[in-house]
């Protein structure tokens, strides 16, 4: 019988957030994957959980470590996986090992808990029913511009992680892409002593980041794009004329224009019939 891979969420700042189930899972596993043995060791000491066998899994070692982990799991061991903070696999190692375990028919389970993305989203006051998580957006180049363009057009709430030294630039780029008035929530040092949640506009957020050197850990929660204004009758007629000039029938032109502008088909068809 093979063992189980258990993904275990740990605190994003406040040690009081390590759940009793997480403590039990850590103490019961045969070995614990972690990014940094010193950091995880410090946390475990706090809970009297010293003396675990560690397997280092970080962005450099995850590929090779997943082979060792799968072998141990196939031999029947229970392996826990934690990261430096929060939920494994969320802008952190985990995804690759999970895939390798699933491919080998190994059971994968999790002890859920803190994740900065979820805490920032739920305190933001922005719509939570549909949202997109972008993690850290690309730092430069074409990739960054296309992601910014996609984010600007996104209708759902967008959550991003950002390092303090890149905060001002990212906010400034978002202001250019989304306009100065788009609402943003800058959530800093969540669950920690200096927790701060600023609900503001992109313009004001840029000014604030310029005036006060960003420090600590940040999550950005951006309001989704508002639906476009409905097209006016004049705009619909102009679009219809273009399609008719291209040789389309009134019925087909109306169907196409209605679809393009999200306008009611009957209204657009009536406009088409009235055109000379
Ligand atoms: N796995 C983690 C999680 O579940 O949130 C995320 C790890 S990622 C390497 C680290 C980033 O998460 C930070 O740069 C920051 O953007 C965000 N983050 C983590 N802890 C945070 C906190 N206490 N307050 C605000 N942001 C935090």
Written account of the structure:
The protein has 3 domains: 4-114, 3-Layer(aba) Sandwich (Cobalt-precorrin-4 Transmethylase, domain 1); 117-222, Tetrapyrrole methylase, C-terminal domain (Methyltransferase, Cobalt-precorrin-4 Transmethylase, Domain 2, 2-Layer Sandwich); 233-274. The protein has 11 helices and 10 strands. The chain has helices spanning 20-28, 37-46, 62-74, 95-103, 116-124, 141-153, 167-178, 202-211, 233-245, 250-261, 265-274; strands spanning 4-8, 31-34, 54-56, 79-81, 107-111, 131-136, 157-162, 183-188, 196-201, 218-222. The strands form 2 sheets. The protein has a 5-stranded parallel beta sheet, with helices on both faces. It has a 5-stranded mixed beta sheet with strand order 6-7-10-8-9. Helix 6 packs across helix 7. It binds S-adenosylmethionine.
Work out the radius of gyration. Answer: 25 Å
- Largest sheet strand order: 3-2-4-1-5
Oligomer: single chain
Structural class by secondary-structure content: alpha/beta
CATH topology of the largest domain: Cobalt-precorrin-4 Transmethylase, domain 1
In total, the number of domains comes to 3
The rough form would be described as elongated
**Number of E strands:** 10
Determine the strand fraction and express it as a percent band: 15-25%
CATH architecture of the largest domain: 3-Layer(aba) Sandwich
Helix content class: 40-55%
Produce the secondary structure layout.
Elements: E1 4-8, H1 20-28, E2 31-34, H2 37-46, E3 54-56, H3 62-74, E4 79-81, H4 95-103, E5 107-111, H5 116-124, E6 131-136, H6 141-153, E7 157-162, H7 167-178, E8 183-188, E9 196-201, H8 202-211, E10 218-222, H9 233-245, H10 250-261, H11 265-274
Parallel strand pairs: 1-4, 1-5, 2-3, 2-4, 6-7
Antiparallel strand pairs: 7-10, 8-9, 8-10
Helix pairs in contact: 3-4, 6-7, 7-8, 9-10, 10-11
């Amino acid at each position: 019988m093979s063992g189980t891979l258990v993904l275990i969420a740990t605190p994003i700042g406040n040690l009081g957030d390590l759940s009793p189930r997480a403590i039990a899972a850590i103490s019961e596993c045969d070995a614990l994957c972690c990014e940094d043995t010193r950091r995880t060791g410090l946390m475990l000491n706090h809970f009297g959980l010293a003396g675990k066998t560690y397997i280092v899994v970080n962005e450099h070692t995850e590929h090779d470590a997943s082979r060792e982990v799968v072998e141990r799991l196939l031999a029947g061991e229970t392996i826990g996986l934690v990261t430096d903070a929060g939920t494994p696999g969320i802008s952190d190692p985990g995804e690759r090992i999970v895939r390798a375990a699933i491919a080998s028919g190994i059971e994968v389970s999790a002890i859920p808990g803190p994740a900065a993305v979820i805490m920032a989203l739920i305190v933001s006051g922005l719509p939570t029913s549909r949202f997109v998580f972008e993690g850290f957006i690309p730092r430069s180049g074409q990739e960054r511009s296309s992601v910014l363009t996609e984010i600007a057009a996104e209708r759902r709430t967008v959550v991003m992680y950002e390092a303090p030294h890149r905060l001002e630039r990212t906010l400034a780029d978002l202001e250019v892409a989304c306009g100065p008035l788009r609402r943003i929530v800058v959530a800093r040092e969540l669950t920690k002593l200096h927790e701060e949640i600023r609900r503001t506009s992109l313009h004001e957020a840029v000014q604030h980041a310029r005036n006060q050197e960003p420090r600590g850990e940040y999550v950005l929660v951006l309001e989704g794009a508002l639906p476009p204004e409905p097209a006016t009758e004049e705009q619909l007629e102009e679009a219809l004329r273009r399609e008719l000039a291209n040789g389309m029938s009134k019925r087909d032109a109306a169907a196409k224009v209605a679809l393009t502008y999200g306008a009611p088909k009957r209204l657009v068809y009536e406009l088409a019939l009235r055109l000379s």
